[in-house]
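S1.2 Input.
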Amino acid sequence: MTSTVSDHLQLDSWTGETAQAIRQFDWSDTPLGAIDDWPQHLRSVVQVMLRNVLPMAVLWGEEGTLLYNDAYAKFSGTRHPSILGMSIIDAWPEAAEFNRNVVDAGLRGESLSYRDISFSLARNGEPSEVWLDLHYSPVASNEGVPVGTLAIVVETTERVLLERNRAVAEAAFREASERLQLALNSGAVRGTFVWEIHENRVNGDERFARTFSFSREDAERGFPIERALSVIHPADCARVTALITRTVRDGSPYRAEYRVGSEAEGWTWIAASGRCEYDADGHPRRFPGVIVDIHDRKIAEESLKEMRRSLEDKVSEAVAARVAVEAQLRQSLKMEALGAMTGGVAHDFNNTLQAISGNLQLLQYLPPDDARVPTRVQAALEAVQRGAKLASQLLSFARRQLQSPVVINPRRLFDELRELLQHAVGSSVTIATLLPEHPWNFCVDRNQLENALLNLAINARDAIRGEGKFTLACSNETLDDAACEGKDLRPGEYVRLTASDTGSGMTPDVLERAFEPFFTTKPDGHGTGLGLSMVFGFVKQSGGHIAVSSTVDVGTTVEILFPHSSDHESAPAEALTMTALTGNATVLVVDDDPAVLASTVAILETMYFAVLKAADGDAALSMLESGVGVDLILTDVVMPGKVKCADLAEWAFAQARPVPVIYASGYTRDILSRDGVLRPNVTLLNKPYRAEMLAKEIANALQRGAQGFLPDM
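S1.3 Output.
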């Protein structure tokens, strides 16, 4: 395989000490072969690995040839760099059996994950016990065949040891609590006290005096309570005072844990308990209490809390790092699939442009009255429609496609689609339809629904691979709370559309990724993995729900739920015809693309409109404020300059007789980003549009204006 310029650029973009070692390593004698001949999927996974901070390694092929990043090199210690390019079996002989199973599982397409697995690894020449979180994921070739394994190594030795220390601390805590209970039961307290409230005199025994660092004489003679409060830790004093006040006020039991002592001599944790006694008139008289030593318990609690915080921080860091690695890997694979899809999109667009270009070039050489002119013009217009349909599909995949919902009768839908679906699946596949006697109507975008059902039929054809059956069914369903659970639906009436086939079915791992963008089991060039993802996006955007079930060698069933509509079926769309408009109407056309502006002006002039034109919103607003009269504004959505299309619409709303506005855009999200609703006298026209559609929208807008339409302000 000959390397390309982009391949060399990718190799040059590999940074880090280990990346340099990989580039300089002579791979020609390894199963991987020369580095310039490495396949793109190997380069991609190596690039993801090198850019990550977690220890990561690639085990390639049956030998498990080892490549790794800087973090893994640091984890390997003195084994690096000698183990680069070795078989993982030989690189870590003390774990040879374990790694042999890992390599074999990866080549079978299996993922493995181990939590806190213990190994005795040689580090600096000495055996050392370490604990690891190990995660192994298969790496597939462009054809979907497993060819290697991506390993993520998270060393959890520190966390495991912290957990062991926590267990020791918890045991110490339990022992301290038991000692406290023994002390209380045996009367081993730190003192007793009595506060004579009327005299504000605190008396205590000898143990109380030692606890509060008072002399025995002071404790026997008594002192104001403020003196006792003065030796309480500043952070605890306000709380203790509040508890004493509450007990004196309402007679509630007194229980407080606090520190006493000083900064110089240190602080000791104690627990004080007591009650307030009252005289015959209900006035507080005395406050007896007891002091207990809880210092050991408090120190053990604080140690345990600190260990728990440290453990939680370590766990959070490990989880966040793993999530980041997995997200980056998914993004890398997604971008690789996007690159494959881009080629197909470019191919379709270039074919469309070639059809338009070829027909227009031919028209240059044909006289106006040549009989081939109408045919060439129609062919160019059909090519434009194909391009617009491709853009619509891409927007639908992104869920940014404006929908035009209509009320649909399932029976009429099935009758009109049956022939199209039969052509799509071929004569070897039998199509059956099942409907209730009176199917309910539902309201969705008709074109997108047809595309979705056509996509399901084509998937069924590919799964059947010969003779089989594709069944399209409809049923009326009333869902309660239990039936709606997990479906993002509200209880109510729904129409269920079911598409089932007798094809090969899907394995559980494929079924799990069925709606994942860019995922496909088809070979390269036969699918981008966008079909079911676009169906999913359309259904969700329509307020519905979609689910798929499948059994290998039995078939696949896709169920779609849409809300029931009680409205009558929408009338079929009328065929568009060029309307001869000769009304005395003046249209202001605003577009920053000179070619679009010129062609739009020419079309309107052929319809006998008086046409004004502006290259941007600034010029358009200046023209309008100069006093020129217009009957309608046709403006692009995204334009340079300070004045935007919304500003022109605001000017139109503010006139004594509001001027209707038509937005023309190739990307509907531009104007729907706020609330998804257009102003009352604004119409949206999607680019590219045909002259017939432009004529119809102008006629409708002018008719509404003539009827005195006033927008809600």
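S1.4 Remarks. The chain has a mean pLDDT of 81.
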